[in-house]
Amino acid sequence: MDKIFEQLETLLERYQELQELMSDPEVINDTKRYMAYSKEEADMRDVVAAFKRYKELKQSISDSDEILRETDDAEMQAMAKDEMETSKKELDEVEHNITLLMLPKDPNDDKNIIMEIRGAAGGDEASLFAADLLSMYSKYAEKQGWSFDIIDETDTEVGGYKDVAVMITGTSVYSKLKYENGAHRVQRIPATESQGRVHTSTATVAVMPEYDEVDIDIDPKDIRTDVYRSSGAGGQHINKTSSAVRMTHLPTGIVVAMQDQRSQQQNRQKAMQILKSRVYDYYESQNQSEYDEQRKSAVGTGDRSERIRTYNYPQNRVTDHRIGLSLNKLDRIMNGDLEEIIDALIVDDQTKKLEQIQSGEAKLF
């Protein structure tokens, strides 16, 4: 805690400086500077408000203590004791809140995401499970008030997906769904199983932030673009023109195919958007692996082959293996009620970050 509160006075001084700068006519007339200061001020606002309340409570406790030491009036002492107890209780809550506000923030938390779901081990059953996961996330997105759009898909004859990519847009999407990265395992009796045996299948989920143009610059020479006629639905226009686009990033071998838009230009734009996110995620994953290898203390490895969760249908149970959480409400979770799992993962993440701070392995704010 001492490490956290050492920084707060400096933070408060900077906040006051920013407020003065934002009222300076010269800054107000410089839109770029004003926006930069506004963002910095907004990022500090909550923690500064909490710190100010912390100081008020500390002063209140000090004043109450002084009254208790200096007066013999029973009524005054009773009032001071009540005030002190109330302030101490709130102080504990404010200290905890400040600690969480001061934790290092993921710069991608406010971003929209591209989510890829792929049927993995298990053949047709894996593809059906991929479709079930897609439905689960779609319902969760609806509950959150987010937009959920399929941007690429390869379906299977049994009604599942070999792979499917979706764009999820809204408020702080990545901050909640980043924990879904990994291999998801299902245990259930497939519809085609005549002897009632439980099968185990897997599907993988990849979650990537929607990166802005400034985040990554891909050399056009590193991209091979092929155009072809769409094989999907779309009417005569798509069937008669080469509107579908396939982009290959040569250094990484990452391929993006897009055919859901009516024009080749629209497909090019969407394909490039997805390609940039996948390439950026590829390089970031490499960096994360190097960091984890060196520090061996980071939260999670980002390894998508790692089994993170099991969905057991016979027992109506979902188990998240990373935090040892089991819930006997699989039916509700598959209906999009993911809040309990995601909230538990966020708390676990915060706890591990606090441990890193206390051990000196991570910096604050």
SSE series: HHHHEHEEHEEEHEEHEEEHH
Q: Which structural class fits the helix and strand makeup?
A: alpha+beta
According to DSSP, the number of beta strands is 11
The strands making up the biggest β-sheet line up spatially as 2-3-1-5-4-9-10-11
Helix content: 40-55%
CATH topology of the largest domain: Alpha-Beta Plaits
- Into how many domains do the coordinates divide? 3
Radius of gyration: 26 Å
Strand coverage percent: 15-25%
| Number of DSSP helical runs | 10
What would you say the CATH architecture of the largest domain is? 2-Layer Sandwich
Shape: flat
Mean pLDDT: 82
Instruction: Identify low-pLDDT runs.
Output: 233-239, 294-305
- Terminal Cα span: 13 Å
CATH classification, class level of the largest domain: Alpha Beta
Largest sheet: 8 strands, mixed
Structure description:
The protein is α+β, with helices and mostly antiparallel strands and 365 residues long. The chain folds into three domains: 1-102, Methane Monooxygenase Hydroxylase, Chain G, domain 1 (Up-down Bundle); 113-213 and 305-359, Alpha-Beta Plaits (2-Layer Sandwich); 220-290, Double Stranded RNA Binding Domain. 49% of the residues lie in helices and 20% in strands. The strands form two sheets. An eight-stranded mixed β-sheet has the order 2-3-1-5-4-9-10-11, sandwiched between helices. A three-stranded antiparallel β-sheet has the order 6-7-8, with helices on one face. The radius of gyration is 26 Å and the shape is flat. The relative contact order is 0.10. This is Peptide chain release factor 1. Residues 229-245 form the Prokaryotic-type class I peptide chain release factors domain. Keywords: Cytoplasm, Methylation, Protein biosynthesis. Belongs to the prokaryotic/mitochondrial release factor family.
